[in-house]
Amino acid sequence: MKTTFKALALSAVAAFSAAGAASATECIAPANPGGGWDFTCRQIGRILQEIGVTPNLVQVTNMAGAGGGVAYSAVVADRNEDADLIVAASSATTTRLAQNAFAGATADQVRWVGAIAGDPGVIVVGKDSPYQSINDLIEAVKADPAAVSFAGGSAVGGFDHLKVLMLLNRAGFTDAKSVKYIGLDGGADAITQTVGGFTQAMTGDLSEVGGFLKSGDVRALAVLSDARVTGFDDIPTAKEQGVDLVAMNWRGLYVPKGISDDDYAKWVDALNKVAASDQWKQVMTENGLAPYTVTGADFETFVGENIAEITNISKEIGIIQ
Known about the structure:
Helices cover 43% and strands 21% of the residues. By secondary structure, the protein is of the alpha/beta class. Strands 1, 2, 3, 4, 5, 6, 7, 8, 9 and 10 form a 10-stranded mixed beta sheet that branches.
């Protein structure tokens, strides 16, 4: 597996080299165009230029493979001291690191710049569900785990699954293996299962369920954000219902490990400036993202704690040994 993984990374680097190295700032999106990482690179890159942090438009390089692992390996092995390189990251990045999906790579092989927005997690039920609050649903799981199934748009052990397990864990339910979770191919398929009554609840991101909430096909029991989300003000947070969990599919950046402290500090400052800009606020409003700015040392601490929690839960459910 490691040989194949290394070959994929080397192939991606060779393809990039053949195209010519960037003469200005570059952002690697570790996936094909059109996804969340590509969105992060293109929007942050555009705003960095518009607010004058970088003189030219940031070049975006799509480097798909291994769920972000090919890009991670390429940065660590071949771009370790490139101070003009930023890389898009999200909760999927830390989840895969926690589960050793990057063939032995570790979080301390790069430097974590920050997160500047998040797609809040949400738990929804069908419109006719008997559950009226997140605590109703939690108590039902505690009473009979087999009677409550959750649908999600990620595989078993992915972030949608982990959101449910972390929620239940914070509420005192620790038998992670007994929780029924059905991983489907994306949030649309997952919510369809709940609308159709095939599962009792759906775990996903707020941006995935907005249309279903507006049509009345589902009800949201809790949003997993620090505060209620503008535009969805009627959805209570899990925290205000007594379950202290914030689970955001955060969007942010990491940079190569080998850059200087001064260069790292410049990227932290640059990301803070993007987060404070009117342009980024408009991007969040237009795309259903919530403010979630954690940068620099605070973000590096967050990443470490997040990976530790995901590692523990992943061991409990047998994803890793």
